[in-house]
Amino acid sequence: MCELLGMSANVPTDICFSFAGLIQRGGNTGPHSDGWGIAFYEGKGFRTFKDPNPSCDSKIADLVQSYPIKSRAVISHIRQANRGEVSLVNTHPFTRELWGRYWTFAHNGQLADYEDWPTGRHRAVGETDSEFSFCWLMGELEKEYPQPPTDMLEVFRFVTKCCDKLRERGVFNMLLSDGEYVMSYCTNHLYWITRRAPFGKASLIDEEMTVNFQEETTPNDIVTVIATQPLTNDETWHRMKPGEFSLFQFGELIDGNAEQLKDVAYAKPKEKKKRRL
Amino acid sequence: MCELLGMSANVPTDICFSFAGLIQRGGNTGPHSDGWGIAFYEGKGFRTFKDPNPSCDSKIADLVQSYPIKSRAVISHIRQANRGEVSLVNTHPFTRELWGRYWTFAHNGQLADYEDWPTGRHRAVGETDSEFSFCWLMGELEKEYPQPPTDMLEVFRFVTKCCDKLRERGVFNMLLSDGEYVMSYCTNHLYWITRRAPFGKASLIDEEMTVNFQEETTPNDIVTVIATQPLTNDETWHRMKPGEFSLFQFGELIDGNAEQLKDVAYAKPKEKKKRRL
Predict the structure, then answer these.
(1) How far is C-alpha B87 from the geometric centre of its chain's CA atoms?
(2) Which of A88, B140, B228, B264 could disulfide-link B3, Cβ–Cβ 3.0 to 4.6 Å?
(3) Which top EC class applies here (chains A, B) (predicted)?
(4) Vertex A104, ends A101 and A108: CA angle to 5°?
């Protein structure tokens, strides 16, 4: 399988800490040594760093870890190949333009019996089921909204219906972003956590590293991190359920289909506190 | 304006030497300090490094210069903004998927009265005339070839006709690649050189750096470099004429509309020698 990492923040934030933990799973503390990639949005623009080599000993990963690129939406992936050879063309995340926005996608899982699905004008360049499902998703979106839509919440609800169909074909854990919204969809393994004031300390599971977010942030910062497995061992991560989707904008959970959603009332300090236990 | 750099090679080759010269023009020996980018193809896959900061003091540019990424098709660009603010979304090169291939484009020049041109399903995300003209080009290609074409030479001849139309709207120097072919189109400033055995030495104009290609290559290597201005001061670069296009595949010039083309008979040792004078 693979591992996913996503971030949504209300102010440009670097993901060096979380990425430092993730890349150790790319051949060191984890078996995901078949390539890695990370896409940073800056406004409507983005830049992606990719390498078909293991992230744990990638010079480019070293740069990404040490060079703080600040972003409000990030999607990252480390790969353990199942479908498609180990090569750059099969390395996540994948990006396509739709409605004058860049859409970036990363997938964890494996699908079957999807090959005859129509992908519209979007064609997969590589051989992965992941890129194919992304192209199919883009095709479905374009069919549903031939013109750029205005209600993006409705759009992501439609994406969720498409993800439900993909989940019928296997394991489909996904991160999707257009630079403003970051959506996660879960089949089996996906966790998220929202960090906000009062900030505390956190320690990575995969690396001897502790950060005091108090020193790294301002009181107004709101940062959500999404990952296949929790990256820290001293924070409470929200585990997503099968078929659950979560939509984040500027760090906040703004939509989803989880029962827990009604409890996640960020505005209420009491519950905010509860969430930090 | 901006500066372009492209490479086509028959074996995966790093472009560190040429890139080292180019990035000095990004704020040091040249005024092109409004961002830079470089796309490396590896098979059908590609990776792009981009930075809206000046290349001459970019940490990412340092990595690209020191970390030899070997590729058979490279497109790079350093920007001096005219249309569109200095930002990542306006930083070249731009990439779109068409016919199951990734197409990468970089432009030097400035266009006028193009805004009402139809771009088909391809929409520009940023504000540059460059990205817009690329989207229009992709739209024209898709209109002409709704299904993936087989005769790519015919396709690039069609691209040339589109470039002729763009040239009517201003200065349009362009590099375009699908990972196998690298095409250059000239309005005013574009040079190229093909290096092959017997290899010699070359010295950069913009940096104290000399390379002995003899030591860096094998006798079968064929590498073409395309640039807005020659990068070396001790080699003979071929200057392209207005309206001239050149198509390279695996380092070789395989098509073009230049009178000089008939003289460029690489198969003949005599003329090969002549071209090295």
Answers:
(1) 21
(2) B228
(3) transferase
(4) 160
Q: Is B64 exposed, middle or buried (0-12, 13-18, 19+ CB in 10 A)?
A: buried
pLDDT in tens, B167-202: 999 999 999 999 999 999 999 999 999 999 999 999
Q: Is residue A275 part of a domain?
A: no
Residues in chain A, pLDDT under 70: 259-277
Would you state the structure tokens that stand for residue A37, as one six-digit string? Answer: 């990639």
Exposure of A116 in the CB half-sphere (CA atoms within 13 A): 1
Q: What are the residues whose beta carbons fall under 8 Å from the beta carbon of A154, sequence distance 6 or more?
A: none
Please, are residues A240 and A258 in contact by the beta-carbon 8 Å criterion? yes
Q: Which two tokens stand for residue B114?
A: 């193009």
Domain assignment present for A222 = yes
Which of the residues in chain B have pLDDT under 50?
A: 264-277
ipTM score for this prediction: 0.91
Q: Tens digit of pLDDT for each residue in B103-132? A: 999 999 999 999 899 998 999 999 999 999
Domain, as residue range, for B192: 3-262
Is the CB of A47 less than 8 angstroms away from the CB of B123?
Answer: no
Q: What is the CATH number of the domain that holds B216?
A: 3.60.20.10
Cβ neighbors of B25 (< 8 A, separation 6 or more) are B3, B31, B32, B55, B56, B78, B206
- Do the chains contact at A122 and B47, CB–CB below 8 Å? no
User: What pTM was computed for the model?
Assistant: 0.92
Give, for B39, the enclosing helix (H) or strand (E).
strand B36-42
The answer to whether position B16 is within a domain reads yes
Tell me the shortest Cα–Cα distance from A46 to chain B, in angstroms: 7
Chain B residue numbers touching A125 (CB-CB < 8 A): 44-45, 97, 100-102
User: Residue A249 domain-assigned?
Assistant: yes
